[in-house]
Amino acid sequence: MGKPYKVFISSVQKEFEQERQQLQQYLQEDALLSGFFLPYLFETDAAGGAAPDAVYLDEVAASDIYIGLLGAEYGYEDADGVSPTEREFDLASTEGLSRWIYIKGDNKTKRHDKEKAFINKVRDLLSYKRFADIDALKKEVYNSCIKFLKETGNISSQDFDNSLHEYAAIQDIDSDKVKDFVRVARAKRGFPLKETATVEKVLEHLHMLRDGQLVNSSLLVFGDKPQAFFPTATVKCGHFHGTTISKPLPDLKVFGGTVFEMAVEAVDFVLSKISLSSGTRAKKNQVDTQYEIPREVIAEAIINAIAHRDYNSSSSVQVYVFADRVEIFNAGELTDELDIEKLKVAHSSYPANPILAESMFLTGDIERFGTGMIDIFRLTAEAGLRSPEIDLSEGFKLILWRPSNDQATDQVTIHDNATDQATDQVTEQVTEQVTEQVDELIKRLILVTRASHSTKELMASLQLKHRPSFKENYLDPSISMGYIEPTELDSPNNPKQKYRLTDKGREVQAKLPKWIGKNTTTHDTTHDTTHDTIHDTTHGAEQVTTHDFRRIKTLPHRVALILIGEQSRADIMKALDLKNRSHFAKEYLEPALKDGIIEMTLPDKPKSKNQRYRLTKKGQALQKQLKS
């Protein structure tokens, strides 16, 4: 063994006096770690007559690893108002040291304002861990040390995807999936083996078979039933109407299968929950479509999560669609060589699962190594979307922001003159009556069907990849509901089979808006205009638009915004475009009553069928404020 790695322990000395000393002692006395790491504390150094700031910065520069303990206090500030801990962190960053950050407490912990700012600065750059006591701190430091020693080759280790599986056999590999892989890889990357190659030969070429034994990655890529070996190797997808995780949950799916199957189904899930617009149909048979977040961004984010997750973790990849964003989480971490800023520019690739990533590269699911995040930031910028955010507090979470209402309006082409606008207003009223019972995904298929299309053409128009999901969720329901019909009625499995709109389908298509989406924040401009100008005949009051109320994040405040005069529960739910009565009561109505924003017209008969609700003086003041 060579020279030990010098570890500089940085923190506010008074706040972390015990932790600093115990951490130093731990690294010096642990049977394994003491042979590789040499901890340094400023207070134990005999610095002679040197100035303290010069000493600690010189020691940082001479170290290999920086450990930062961040807590409630910011500490002593120099003439520029910067603490020694932050100075040390900045120098460690400049010198390229491995930086291990441990934050005491949670988001509710009271902290000095400058310490909050320092923590936010760190969070924007690095992965970090939290701890509550010295035992938890020692555990996290130990894990960081072992990870560092593996990455530097000081202790031998096998990556998850390169490790031999204890009992899996070649019979657990699906030969058809291997052939499909070879066919695609030959077309995409010039893969040298032919489709006639044996399963064993393909696996050996991909380093997935060693001495006749399968490695873990082979089961994730080609396994007949991958989850029989790795139950948590799944993608969990959820859809929420609001901006937080809350019940009722409109849709929750857990996707299994190979890494390719999980990725395709998860991408299609997200696309089914965000808004879709159609382009012109005038010049070609296939309709151009545009999702509010580009499909390439969604796919890259999900594939990145699947390829780089920590498969030793019991946590699945999680994909959540909210009203204002899409979150993709995986249990992996950035390597010491990377930070958030480096992900946004050209950088080397450090795949957590190299063999797995290579297989996804060969099929074209990963375009180029080290460019995925760059493409995500570039494509969202080109689409005019808010820049994505990365949260490293518990693994790796990527946040993709959906368009604001103003952005959605800018993306939609509207008619040029007042006559067209008035016509659109009337059309929109009819649209709601004709299409309100049509399932969201059926509308999308109707939107892109112009003449006669094959299944492949329809899927391409909708930018979908998973054929079974398309058939189950789009095509079959459209046929059974009488909106789409096959051209070869007597030969359903005919290879030349195509699909076209029925008269019923064309009637719906003619009245569909340009943008369609389920519970999204994007809307057709004409839809907003309609609600702005059409009045409720019962109450003689102008209805407030979906565009207006969805900018309000506090749900009871939405009630205050739309409530005019005295209205029934059904009236309010309709104005808010809500369907679930119990959810409305729990999340909107009851909190608004409790907060004194609204009141019952019959307070002594709360369950009366004649019950109405109206604004209190507090609610009236709030409504005025919200509208302004």
Question: What's the short version?
Answer:
The chain has 628 residues and is an alpha/beta fold. It is built from 25 helices and 22 strands. The chain has 5 domains: 5-151, 3-Layer(aba) Sandwich (Rossmann fold); 166-228, no CATH class; 235-406, Heat Shock Protein 90; 414-513, Winged helix-like DNA-binding domain superfamily/Winged helix DNA-binding domain (Arc Repressor Mutant, subunit A, Orthogonal Bundle), CATH 1.10.10; 536-627, Orthogonal Bundle (Arc Repressor Mutant, subunit A), CATH 1.10.10.
What features would you highlight for this structure?
single chain; 628 residues; alpha/beta; Rossmann fold; Heat Shock Protein 90; six-stranded mixed sheet
Describe this structure in words.
The protein is of the alpha/beta class and 628 residues long. It has 5 domains: 5-151, Rossmann fold (3-Layer(aba) Sandwich); 166-228, no CATH class; 235-406, 2-Layer Sandwich (Heat Shock Protein 90); 414-513, Winged helix-like DNA-binding domain superfamily/Winged helix DNA-binding domain (Arc Repressor Mutant, subunit A); 536-627, Orthogonal Bundle (Arc Repressor Mutant, subunit A), CATH 1.10.10. A 6-stranded mixed sheet has the order 9-8-12-13-15-14, with helices on one face. A 5-stranded parallel sheet has the order 2-1-3-4-5, sandwiched between helices. It has a 3-stranded antiparallel sheet with strand order 11-10-18. A hairpin with a 4-residue loop joins strand 14 (389-391) and strand 15 (396-401). Helix 10 runs antiparallel to helix 13 (372-382) and helix 15 crosses helix 20. The chain is flat and about 85 Å long. The termini are far apart.
